[in-house]
Amino acid sequence: MPKRDFRVIHLVPALFGPQGIVGGAERYVLELAKAMSAAVPTSLVTFGPVDRTTGEGDLQIDVIGRPLHVRGQHANPFSPRLFSRLRPATVIHCHQQHILASSLAALFCRLTGRRVFVSDLGGGGWDVSAYVSTDRWYHGHLHISEYSKRVFGHSNNPRAHVILGGVDTQKFSPSRNVPRKGYALYVGRLLPHKGVNYLIEGLPVDMELIVIGAPYDQRYARDLEQLAQGKRVEFRRNVDDADLITAYREALCIVLPSVYQTVYGDRTKVPELLGQTLVEGMACGTPALCTDVASMPEVVDHEVSGFVVPPNDGEAIGAKLAWLRDHPQEWARMGGAARERVESTFTWNAVVDRCLEIYRA
To answer: Which of 118, 177, 238, 262 could form a disulfide with 94 if both were Cys (CB 3.0 to 4.6 A apart)?
Structure first.
């Protein structure tokens, strides 16, 4: 398909940022679309409170205002105006399979001869896929990890591919001008399945912990604050990218202690589909510490770029944090290996190349 006749539209329920949602899935779509726009004509179509058209570099962003929220579900917006926004595309890449906008976009593509693909980034809402499988409505399922491919039942599906995730390695990078301050760092939403309570429990007594993220569960946020009393724990909420990158560069370790079973006894099969904050921290030359859960062992090479420990085990987390603090030469080696791991596997250009090859196949 010639480049001049090739136009990609990414469809996502909400835009990343203060006027949308500050979440890993939304950032993933925005960064992928931005990177892809440098290779082929690319737009991002999403929903929001008001109609607006904006852009970032070569990427056009089209926000459909005042959508219907299916059954009152904020993460499941739809508007009939979606179809007119999709007409310029030859390829449509939906992000979130189990929402009404994606299913109707897939039908639109099938009826009009366009190619349509989907990545499931977690979440969803009421959709026809609750009653009939929509898997074959898409020309391909583009998973962000081998775990995602497996947990969604696509291990033997020839339409399923793994595209992984990426990071801007120029923006997220080490800096000799930023001294390491030796604190443990968590970045992400404050939800029970993130396991932050185990990180606080296991924190060495002389170590500081910075927790960056919004409290999406008020009970859990209160419990974390109570658990942190008497410890060197600082909670930060509204952090822009510049301050986030500084935090990654200053940290001893980026920690993602997600669990299958929360402290309240609830279970989830999909606590992580990739582990984006691990990739971002590693890109800044910071070793990573994660639990042996979901996709995260695909990101962190145990004892090479960081450590993989059992879930729900604060003592194991604390022991590895103390080891990193007490072994500066090995810590530096792991930080270098973390950066190399990202450069070799987790760049947006690599993700774009994988997507375009699949789109055109």
So the answer is: 118
What is the bridge-based pairing of β-strands 68-69 and 77-78? antiparallel
The answer to whether 257 and 317 have CB atoms below 8 angstroms apart is: yes
pLDDT at 1: 44
Asked whether 237 and 213 are in contact (CB, 8 A), the reply is yes
Q: Ramachandran region of residue 105, left (φ > 0), alpha (ψ -120 to 50) or beta?
A: alpha
H or E element at residue 353: helix 348-360
Q: Count CA within 13 A, CB hemisphere, residue 54.
A: 13
Q: Which residues contact 175 (CB under 8 A, 6 or more apart)?
A: 249, 284
What is the predicted pLDDT for the residue at 21? Answer: 64
According to DSSP, residue 292 is labeled S
Distances (CA, A) of 130 to 14, 70, 150, 340: 22, 14, 19, 42
Give me the half-sphere count of Cα atoms (radius 13 Å) on the Cβ side of residue 318: 14
pLDDT in tens, 268-278: 999 999 999 99
Question: 281 with 187: CB under 8 angstroms?
Answer: yes
Contact 127, 76 (CB under 8 A): yes
pLDDT tens, 235-283?
A: 999 889 999 999 999 999 999 999 999 999 999 999 999 999 999 999 9
